[in-house]
């Protein structure tokens, strides 16, 4: 069976995210003062051939640990299978 | 001692490195292709250089895809056997992604690509003027890792002002503890963001890069510092 797995990769909370900071400035200029913080990550969509959703998730986790996210600077979450 | 310079798709400082090593420093140097994996002509006395550039378009993260290229598998093995490896700029990023060096290089804290001459100092507090050119050079590692690096004298270069002061204004990218270059614990793998190969010829107006290569290939490798 084919599964679509979504992996969310985000910069670690304690690290400065310059991209988010720049977008935050833009939002401020738009007058959207209620937005207090912006952090930008990635959403990676994987098409996985597997026998079950659980197996597809495990494969995506392995891919995330080995390549899609770098634990020195990022964390990841499997957001949907 | 001879050198091998790796060419990845997207490398753009490979020829600069070759020219500096061959024409300015009179070294033997061979170009290596990322799809090759044969390093049998190199011994642990030799040095493989990962040049600057944008390998694989910096996709996913800088250096992340290059790490899985055929030649990197051989280079990781070569380094583990004591072979010497130098990474400059994107090469430094690849070495961190390959876990040959600790830490990672993040996007510059000032949100800008910075291309200019600046000053770095070595472990003996000697100051050099060397160009940098990067958008993702903010060295980061957790405090425990940084303490180990400092305890073992693995921090080889730090950003400083002209007089050698480690002031925040001299730090072009927000690197922790002003770190510009490090080596591994066994002192055979080196990574730095500044480009010594761009400062080796009097025609280019700056020869401080030669001293950087001398430090790396004599003093650090011979265990003097």
From TrEMBL, chain A:
Main enzyme class: ligase
Coiled coil: 43-70
Subcellular location: Cytoplasm
Record keywords: ATP-binding, Coiled coil, Cytoplasm, Ligase, Nucleotide-binding, Purine biosynthesis
Gene3D superfamilies: Phosphoribosylformylglycinamidine synthase subunit PurS
GO biological process entries: 'de novo' IMP biosynthetic process
Enzyme Commission numbers on file: 6.3.5.3
InterPro entries (alphabetical): PurS, PurS-like_sf
SUPFAM superfamilies (alphabetical): PurS-like (SSF82697)
Source organism superkingdom: Bacteria
GO function terms (MF aspect): ATP binding; phosphoribosylformylglycinamidine synthase activity
Alphabetical list of Pfam families matching this protein: PurS
Catalytic activity annotation: N(2)-formyl-N(1)-(5-phospho-beta-D-ribosyl)glycinamide + L-glutamine + ATP + H2O = 2-formamido-N(1)-(5-O-phospho-beta-D-ribosyl)acetamidine + L-glutamate + ADP + phosphate + H(+)
Pathway: Purine metabolism; IMP biosynthesis via de novo pathway; 5-amino-1-(5-phospho-D-ribosyl)imidazole from N(2)-formyl-N(1)-(5-phospho-D-ribosyl)glycinamide: step 1/2
Gene Ontology cellular-component terms listed: cytoplasm
NCBIfam families tied to this protein: phosphoribosylformylglycinamidine synthase subunit PurS (TIGR00302), PRK05974.1 (NF004630)
Self-association and partners: Part of the FGAM synthase complex composed of 1 PurL, 1 PurQ and 2 PurS subunits.
Family: Belongs to the PurS family.
Protein function: Part of the phosphoribosylformylglycinamidine synthase complex involved in the purines biosynthetic pathway. Catalyzes the ATP-dependent conversion of formylglycinamide ribonucleotide (FGAR) and glutamine to yield formylglycinamidine ribonucleotide (FGAM) and glutamate. The FGAM synthase complex is composed of three subunits. PurQ produces an ammonia molecule by converting glutamine to glutamate. PurL transfers the ammonia molecule to FGAR to form FGAM in an ATP-dependent manner.
Protein name: Phosphoribosylformylglycinamidine synthase subunit PurS
From TrEMBL, chain B:
Signal peptide as annotated in the record: none
Catalyzed chemical reaction(s): N(2)-formyl-N(1)-(5-phospho-beta-D-ribosyl)glycinamide + L-glutamine + ATP + H2O = 2-formamido-N(1)-(5-O-phospho-beta-D-ribosyl)acetamidine + L-glutamate + ADP + phosphate + H(+); L-glutamine + H2O = L-glutamate + NH4(+)
GO BP, sorted A to Z: 'de novo' IMP biosynthetic process
Sorted UniProt keywords: ATP-binding, Cytoplasm, Glutamine amidotransferase, Hydrolase, Ligase, Nucleotide-binding, Purine biosynthesis
Location(s), subcellular: Cytoplasm
Family matches, as InterPro entries: Class_I_gatase-like, PRibForGlyAmidine_synth_PurQ
Keyword flag Cell wall biogenesis/degradation: no
Enzyme Commission identifier(s): 6.3.5.3, 3.5.1.2
Primary localisation category: cytoplasm
A GO molecular-function annotation: glutaminase activity
Pathway(s) the chain acts in: Purine metabolism; IMP biosynthesis via de novo pathway; 5-amino-1-(5-phospho-D-ribosyl)imidazole from N(2)-formyl-N(1)-(5-phospho-D-ribosyl)glycinamide: step 1/2
CDD domains in alphabetical order: GATase1_FGAR_AT (cd01740)
Positions annotated as active site in the UniProt record: 89 (nucleophile), 195, 197
Self-association and partners: Part of the FGAM synthase complex composed of 1 PurL, 1 PurQ and 2 PurS subunits.
Role played: Part of the phosphoribosylformylglycinamidine synthase complex involved in the purines biosynthetic pathway. Catalyzes the ATP-dependent conversion of formylglycinamide ribonucleotide (FGAR) and glutamine to yield formylglycinamidine ribonucleotide (FGAM) and glutamate. The FGAM synthase complex is composed of three subunits. PurQ produces an ammonia molecule by converting glutamine to glutamate. PurL transfers the ammonia molecule to FGAR to form FGAM in an ATP-dependent manner.
Name of the molecule in the record: Phosphoribosylformylglycinamidine synthase subunit PurQ
């Amino acid at each position: 069976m084919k599964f679509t797995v979504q992996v969310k990769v985000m910069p670690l909370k304690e690290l400065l995210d310059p991209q988010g900071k720049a977008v935050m400035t833009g939002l401020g200029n738009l007058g959207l003062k209620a937005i207090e913080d912006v952090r930008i990550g990635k959403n990676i969509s994987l098409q996985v051939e597997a026998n079950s959703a659980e197996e597809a998730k495990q494969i995506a986790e392995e891919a995330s640990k080995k390549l899609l996210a770098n634990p020195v600077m990022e964390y990841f979450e499997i957001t949907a299978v | 001692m001879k050198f091998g310079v790796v060419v990845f798709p997207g490398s753009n400082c490979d020829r600069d490195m070759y020219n500096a090593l061959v024409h300015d420093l009179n070294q033997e140097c061979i170009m290596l292709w990322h799809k090759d994996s044969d390093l049998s002509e190199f011994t642990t006395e030799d040095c493989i250089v990962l040049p600057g550039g944008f390998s694989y378009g910096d996709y996913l993260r800088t250096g992340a895809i290059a790490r899985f290229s055929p030649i990197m598998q051989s280079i990781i093995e070569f380094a583990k056997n004591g072979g010497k490896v130098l990474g400059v700029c994107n090469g430094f990023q690849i070495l961190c992604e390959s876990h040959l060096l600790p830490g990672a290089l993040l996007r510059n804290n000032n949100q800008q690509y910075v291309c200019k001459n600046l000053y770095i100092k070595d472990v003996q507090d000697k100051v050099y003027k060397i160009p940098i050119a990067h958008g993702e050079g903010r060295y980061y590692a957790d405090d425990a890792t940084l303490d180990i690096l400092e305890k073992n004298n693995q921090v080889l270069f730090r950003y400083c002002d002209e007089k050698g002061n480690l002031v925040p204004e001299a730090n072009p990218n927000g690197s922790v503890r002003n770190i510009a270059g490090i080596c591994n614990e066994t002192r055979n793998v080196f990574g730095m963001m500044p480009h010594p190969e761009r400062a080796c010829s009097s025609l280019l107006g700056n020869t401080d890069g030669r001293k950087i290569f001398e430090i790396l290939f004599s003093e650090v490798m011979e265990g003097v510092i």
